[in-house]
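#dry-run=false #mode=assembly
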Amino acid sequence: VTLTIHPLRGIPEVEVGADLGGLLLASLDSGGLSLIDGDVVAITHKIVSKAEGAIREIDPEHEDAEYRRIVLDEAAEVIRVRGDLIIAKTAHGFICANAGVDRSNALPGTVVLLPRDPDRSAHRIRVALEKATGARIAVVVSDTFGRPWRRGLTDVAIGISGMEAVLDLKGTTDTTGRELNVTEVALVDELAAAADLVMGKAASIPAALIRGLAWQPGDGRATDLIRPAIEDMFR
Amino acid sequence: VTLTIHPLRGIPEVEVGADLGGLLLASLDSGGLSLIDGDVVAITHKIVSKAEGAIREIDPEHEDAEYRRIVLDEAAEVIRVRGDLIIAKTAHGFICANAGVDRSNALPGTVVLLPRDPDRSAHRIRVALEKATGARIAVVVSDTFGRPWRRGLTDVAIGISGMEAVLDLKGTTDTTGRELNVTEVALVDELAAAADLVMGKAASIPAALIRGLAWQPGDGRATDLIRPAIEDMFR
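#status=ok
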């Protein structure tokens, strides 16, 4: 099966209280697309946060100091600090730069936080899209994270609904009949990364439709991807 | 532009000295595909290693001990050890589990190493495919890596040819006119992750064609993605 990834264009600047389901459906419609069973809709968290009011005002006169204070407010635990960069664990448990507080693609005088409960956000959007279309889909809410040992950033899933976070291959065998030792694929992170290829950071394409992937419905959460502290060798 | 990702099927078990370019072209042909300018061919390193003879024999009687010895042979530096799991830096500089030595999808009595120079491998394959087709393409050789703080594995690029590893957005502005603070996207890692969605671990689909992405030709290397030790806060 061939996978297709469609950028969802024409979504305007999102305001607090915006109906994201309606905006996504209008974008799909204007692109000549309608949702079908098995589709995955990936959405950058930025528009989710804006719709939910997960933004903070910031005084342009003291922007850097205020930004740092908001980052520390959002940090449940500071993991590392180097210069202006704070690597922190968020209240959700994600470890990322600046506790997920973002200045780009924020309206002037504001910063954008992570949604309070991105899995719940994904669920709400999925329910809205499924109600409107009758299709059985999954939703992935993404953010852009760095990695400790690799330069550059990739998109990962911070909220999901409708599928499991991890594809567990335990018990399956490889082409030689040997049981696989790679058993857990972070499927939703791969979906977020794939969607980012068509979204781009500078273009105003905050969502994408991924069609053609075989996946099992499930009620996973993106927080399932958080490695328990006891397994963490690098904190 | 819509992105399409086609699995490349029908590639037989690869033996030492195999003509990977020829196998990929035959697979494309049997799938009704021919390469065009802008295509990206993603290939799991496993078949590259096998074609290049980057495999080691292993005595099934002492498999675990021999495996550990080979992992330590391949490790330029051991970063962490927990039980059977060794996190190591390879000679290339990649930090990954078991120094990239893999038992799954290896023929019985063998293990598969990383290619000695995966960027060079990608280059050779790209040149072969470009010569045969006249198309200007990029090649990504992938492996499956874990992440310190997130459960599950994703595919990343360990060898590339024809494009830059990182998409540098420095100087570009977001939708509000503000300069982006996320400036480096690990484009080739997102391509590897996207390709893995159609390849799968258990199915014998070792390659994929990604079509429709806008990218600039370049002579990047996957080793460009290795974060210099001096920037590394987590070693």
